[in-house]
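dude i think i finally got it to work??
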Amino acid sequence: MKEKIKITYREAEERDADGLLLHLSRVGGESDFLTFGKEGFGASAEREARFIRRFIKNPDEIMLVAMDGDKVVGNGVIERERIPRLSHRARLSLTVLEDYSHRGIGTQLMEMLVSFSRKSGAKIIYLECHAQNSRALSLYEKFGFKISGTMNKYFRIGEKYYDAHLMELVL
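look at this
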């Protein structure tokens, strides 16, 4: 049984830039189910701070962090489409470190992200999920997401291609 830990959840702040970059590097190195690997996004701390600032300034978007003390162990993002004809749509992304899986962190972040999306007026939340990521697919389906299509050869890892499911939740 995993040890009991106290996870806190909050909106990301600019001071979280280094911790988020480290988190993304770690989580990217743990799984081939993400759009990035251990290299993360290749962003500098300054660029990541600017990215976080965007969420702070926009009331229709949010970036959340799950913290174990000072360590980022999970994060979740809702980004609204900027094009007026698509602005009713919100893109969701979610990561949790493997050592912290099966502790309800993904579920808590999802609850917060879906609730935020409803309150902000989004009509549809969508995401892309590696077609073989059964754990993530199960979490998203638990929240009512449905597969609306499959994107062939969406991921390329080395010389091999993998499909991704487009999933949507109509609010």
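The CA atoms of residues 82 and 89 lie 9 Å apart.
im so relieved honestly
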